[in-house]
Amino acid sequence: MSVLRIKFLKSSIALLLGFSAGIGLISYTTSCSGNLPTPTPPTPQEKPIPFTEKYFSLTITNNQLNVNGMQSSADTSNYNTLSIPPTYTDENNNTYRVASIGVDAFLREFSFDTRSNIINLDLTNASNLRTIYSGAFSLCKAFCNTLTIPGSVTSIGANAFANTCFTNIVNHSSNFNFADNVGSARVLINATSGTSLNYDGGSIVGCIAFGKLTIPSSVTTIGDELFNSCLELTDSLTIPNSVITVGDYAFSSCSGFNGALTIGNSVTRIEYYAFYNCSGFTGSLTIPNSVTSINNYAFYNCSAFNGTLTINDSVINIGGNAFSGCSKFNTIDVSNWTNIPTIGTNSFRNFNSQGGTVLVPENYVQLGIALSTFDGLPSTWQLQVV
């Protein structure tokens, strides 16, 4: 099935991700163009795949049923929905509760090039479902409906819904803390505590989230690799003042961002590769005076910043290659430094070779600040006292 991707320009559409009552939402916002409203296509009537052993691989353990995936020979061309029921009755008229969906059960099973006609995942009636194991629906990119997590669910494994295309997630499970087990930046992203965006192992490289990302002000942690390689995140990005830590690879290779990056004034650590290769951010960048550590490769190859890089006096460590490849900055402002932080190898390598200005305090000589302080900075740059 061919896929047509339309770039929107004017009216706003928000894709709201998994939430709990009272918790802020993460939204991806795009816009629509044209003088007339875009017509909404009719929702196709659901035609669920028959839940039988002809179509599904099923295992019974302790009188409970686990769904292992599809039978490879199953012809699903006449259906459009994968629906998980509450119970299953076998040919001997024995009835079992459908309790779990197995590891990698439907991995890549419903994508643009395999069983692409199955566009809905329906868990609404799966009232006995307790566990959705790791990778269960990973890379099922054909799913494009609203997903409802039933209240019976107590465990969701790593990457259970990684790289899916759900437009909305409704969570009815009050038993489950998604902060510890979330599997995709695209879905199920808010913790019930509302403080941590995280996931349990594995990478979400290649996620298909798109548009403007808005992080709610309740969030304090952006976990490791959470948005790694989400190439179609666009526009500017604001890390709210509530956030304390931006984890390793948190936004690594999110090259679609094409506006300003604003870092909130509560962030204390910007971890390894946090914004690595975010080559679309523009304008100036201020490291707020709450930050103490900028780790290795944190802003490596953020090559479109084209204003001033301001590093405040709170920073005590700048890791190796932290700003290497930020080739369009024309000014570095360290004018409020009272001490020189530890600066790693090549932290300022491949800056603008045509030259630029480092703004320094009046007592820079006594502090020992020189061009060589900024390891790797081209000799065409100069110091200027503020």
Structure description:
It is a single chain. This protein has 386 residues and is an all-beta fold. Helices cover 2% and strands 27% of the residues. It is built from two helices and 28 strands. It has helices at residues 178-181, 364-367, and strands spanning 11-16, 27-32, 56-61, 64-70, 81-83, 87-89, 95-101, 120-122, 131-132, 146-149, 155-156, 168-171, 196-197, 210-214, 221-222, 232-234, 237-239, 245-246, 261-263, 269-270, 283-287, 293-294, 305-311, 317-318, 331-333, 342-343, 357-360, 382-385. The strands form seven sheets. It has a seven-stranded parallel beta sheet, with no helix packed on it. Strands 3, 4, 6, 7, 9 and 11 form a six-stranded mixed beta sheet that branches. β3 (56-61) and β4 (64-70) form a beta hairpin. The longest helix is centred in the middle third of the chain and has 4 residues, at 178-181. Mean pLDDT is 80; it is low at 1-42 and 176-209.
List the helices and strands and how they pair.
Blueprint: E1 11-16, E2 27-32, E3 56-61, E4 64-70, E5 81-83, E6 87-89, E7 95-101, E8 120-122, E9 131-132, E10 146-149, E11 155-156, E12 168-171, H1 178-181, E13 196-197, E14 210-214, E15 221-222, E16 232-234, E17 237-239, E18 245-246, E19 261-263, E20 269-270, E21 283-287, E22 293-294, E23 305-311, E24 317-318, E25 331-333, E26 342-343, E27 357-360, H2 364-367, E28 382-385
Parallel strand pairs: 4-7, 5-8, 7-9, 9-11, 10-12, 13-15, 14-16, 15-18, 17-19, 18-20, 20-22, 21-23, 22-24, 23-25, 24-26, 25-27, 27-28
Antiparallel strand pairs: 1-2, 2-14, 3-4, 6-7
